[in-house]
């Protein structure tokens, strides 16, 4: 196989068959190129708007494969994309030309129930991790969709149902194994390479390829009090105000969100999704103010397994649709902002469009901003505008709807933005990336210079070394 796809250097020569075969023989996993069986499936990611064709895909079976892939990419000046779960909205897991380093086959998980820790390889999803940890009644903060990979969520901070009680994902990261751009394999923790450990907790995939993560676990469930309360759309202003008022005094064990969405039958709805991770009797007291509002069309709030709640929205965010997001933090949920939300949602071009207002705060806000590279520690809510559709002909209508919605809400948003919800750098430019990393940006630039001065790992919300 002779490759002529673009690489990082415009003048880079095509590969000869011998170099490809030597690389292939160095791997325990598969090496795929265009035309090989499995290539098209391997290059697909969650967001169907992303349709890129790597020159090569290295499906890594372990750390040795990752080391070989990084060396091959570096020696040949190849653009590198790193895939874990492939769930990020930007599709940064796959590149045109260059080398896609696919970690998804790396699925090892080991739970230590006595120490309340778990070590998991970078191809694991949150649903897979929960399957193992919940066998012991334990969990780490995960996301809100179980098919999300642990890697991207953790490196970008990681907000989920447990964050108010136990902190974001990166607050619970104890150690990581990292392959750096210069080919070193490092064990990273508070005691080993603490500068890099700081940067991994919020700085994204800028500093190396994390091959495994070690997390602190917490007793959770297996039964929690959770589930949606659905109301008609005209109830949204009052419902969102009730959500805002309850948030002001909510216990840390109460997480969740408010949302505007459309039912499978086509009915526009307002919803609350409380998630209480604690004693069920305490949960009933905590959710009472939310349950007391109005007359819901459906009350699905009740005891359920934690794993069920983690997967509850998987069907609403399936792979294979075209997706576009805009987001921002909010310190308050102003009445005027609520009115804008209802107005713009009512004009959504897709039945898969909506807005979610995640309840922030609690333990998330009690970590000092400088303790990790995830700096966003003083907000009450995190807002996500989302839309999805099937036909490429509908791209412009959906993207412009989300952008107009976000611009209308901009006066009510804080300066920061959650890096895991951030779109492509071209959509908002470097200012949005700086907003994602906040006051830590210059420290992160210095760290990038130390660990990846040539910017080998650039397919991400990139921190340029210069």
Give an overview in words.
Strands 12, 13, 14, 15, 16, 17, 18, 19 and 20 form a nine-stranded antiparallel β-sheet that branches. Strands 5-6-10-8-9 form a five-stranded antiparallel β-sheet. Helix 8 (236-248) packs across helix 11 and helix 11 (335-345) runs antiparallel to helix 12 (395-409). It is an alpha+beta fold and 466 residues long. The protein is 27% helix and 22% strand. The longest helix has 15 residues, at 395-409. It contains 14 helices and 20 strands. The chain has three domains: 19-102, Uridine Diphospho-n-acetylenolpyruvylglucosamine Reductase, domain 2; 109-220, Uridine Diphospho-n-acetylenolpyruvylglucosamine Reductase, domain 3 (2-Layer Sandwich), CATH 3.30.465.10; 223-434, 3-Layer(aba) Sandwich (Vanillyl-alcohol Oxidase, Chain A, domain 3).
What is the tally of beta strands? Answer: 20
- Specify the structural class: alpha+beta
DSSP helical segment count: 14
> What CATH architecture of the largest domain would you give?
3-Layer(aba) Sandwich
Percent range of helical residues = 25-40%
CATH topology-level name of the largest domain: Vanillyl-alcohol Oxidase, Chain A, domain 3
Sequence stretches where pLDDT stays below 50 over 5 or more residues: 1-13
Overall average pLDDT: 94
Q: How far from one another are the termini?
A: 36 Å
Shape summary: globular
Whole-number tally of structural domains? 3
Top CATH class of the largest domain? Alpha Beta
What radius of gyration results from the CA coordinates? 22 Å
